[in-house]
Specification:
CATH superfamily of the largest domain: FAD/NAD(P)-binding domain
CATH class of the largest domain: Alpha Beta
Bound molecules: flavin-adenine dinucleotide
Radius of gyration: 21 Å
């Protein structure tokens, strides 16, 4: 059986980014159940970077990821992964308290957020229906080129010697004599350390390893791509409901990506959109702007997996220090990936962190 220092289970954004961070110093095996990496949550995101998304406990990880995403090291990528978008958080008079809460939550941080006067809202969103008069402007929000980032992590990991094995669902994990024996559909492996980066399946992997699960719950989220008339301006910002009931943003060719911001608890699976959520998305959209929906071009759903306190879980398990959690990335696993991977690498390799983060905030100890 091939032997590795570290076996990472799951080649989504979490597993791929950590593999690239540690492969120069450790022999790394990246194990993926599917035919190709990125099939699940990573390949289904809305692809934005917003410092307010996920709340104040996530913002330090999002902010700490910005420099890497905007100007990655030249040996990693010859171009950045962010492009400016801006976010308009919008609501009616009923969402006054939500607007104030948003402002208060980030008042002590470096996040740029500004309350817009009613007249200024039209500069960002034409066709706004009556009543949508409350808005906060987040200028630094960006689109992320998710596929390019994920591929860059995978290429970098490979270049540094990481072995990537696909179509290899892990079926058994046994810890004996200080090593993990890992049984997969593509053969057996031995590793000193196992990293659980299995996204929606994180608790299932823990149970295979006889480690106490952390109640990481997957929630389904729906996205649809629509053609609208008039077509969406390319400079349209990400438009987010202050009540958390929708968001939409432009895609190439005047199309829009729209979500009803649904959060339906579901077991880990290959998530598919439900007609009801699609209808809710369209209904909410039509209440905000007077644009006509010409047709639905595409719809998809993915899983966002959260620990009970909605913070990611990054660190060794107290029951077995050779089992490392990299899970619970919720709805922010792309925008936080560089900082999360650097934090995980620092904990695994006893390295200094290049930014200030309190690791205990995200450690497994908070559940014990
Ligand atoms: C609709 C939607 C919109 C989103 N929008 C954004 C956004 O705009 N910005 C943002 O930052 N985040 C966003 N997210 C969240 C983001 O996509 C996730 O946080 C991130 O992709 C999680 O990455 P991951 O690697 O943990 O999970 P995944 O990408 O799901 O990877 C986990 C991998 O583990 C593999 N695996 C599972 N079990 C096994 C096993 N037994 N053996 C081997 N492999 C296994 C799976 O096959 C999978 O490939 C969104 C998510 C959704 C669903």
């Amino acid at each position: 059986m091939s032997q590795f220092d570290v076996a990472i289970i799951g080649a989504g954004m979490a597993g791929a980014s950590l593999a690239a961070e540690i492969a120069a110093e450790k022999s790394v095996l990246l194990i993926e159940a599917e035919e190709f990496p990125g099939y699940h949550s990573t390949g289904r995101s809305a692809a934005f970077w917003s410092e307010t998304y996920g709340g104040p406990a996530i913002q330090p990880l999002t902010t700490a990821s910005q420099a890497f995403l905007a100007t990655p090291p030249t040996d990693f990528s010859d171009r950045g992964f962010l492009s400016p978008r801006g976010a308009l958080h919008i609501g009616t008079v009923e969402n006054q308290a939500a607007a104030e809460e948003l402002q208060t939550n980030f008042a002590a941080s470096s996040v740029a957020l500004e309350r817009l006067p009613k007249k200024a809202i039209d500069e960002y969103l034409s066709g706004r229906r009556d009543g949508w008069d409350i808005a906060m402007w987040e200028p630094d929000c960006c689109d992320i080129d998710v596929a390019a980032l994920h591929q860059a992590y995978l290429s970098s990991a490979r270049r540094l010697g990481c072995e990537i094995v696909c179509r290899a669902p892990v079926r058994a994990l046994n810890f004996t004599g200080g090593y993990w024996k890992i049984e997969t559909a593509a053969g057996g492996f031995v590793a000193q350390m196992v990293v659980n980066a299995a996204g929606a399946w994180a608790d299932e992997i823990a149970q295979l390893a006889q480690i106490r699960k952390l109640d990481i719950q997957p929630f389904r989220r729906t996205m649809i791509q629509i053609e609208v008339a008039p077509s969406a301006p390319a400079e349209l910002p990400l438009v987010v409901g202050l009540d958390g009931s929708f968001y939409f943003k432009p895609d190439a060719g005047g199309r829009l990506w729209l979500s009803p911001h649904d959060e339906i608890a579901t077991p880990p699976c290959d998530a598919a959109p439900e007609e009801l959520e699609v209808a809710i998305a369209l209904d909410r959209f039509e209440q905000v702007v007077d644009w006509n929906v010409v047709r639905i071009e595409r719809k998809w759903a993915g899983l966002r997996s959260f620990a009970p306190d909605r913070k990611p879980v990054i660190g060794r398990d107290s029951q077995n220090e050779q089992f490392f959690w990299l899970a619970g990335q919720g709805g922010f696993g792309i925008q936080t990936a560089p900082a999360v991977a650097q934090l995980a690498a620092a904990l695994l390799l006893q390295r200094e962190l290049p930014f200030e983060i309190v690791p205990a905030l995200y450690s497994t100890d908070r559940f014990r």
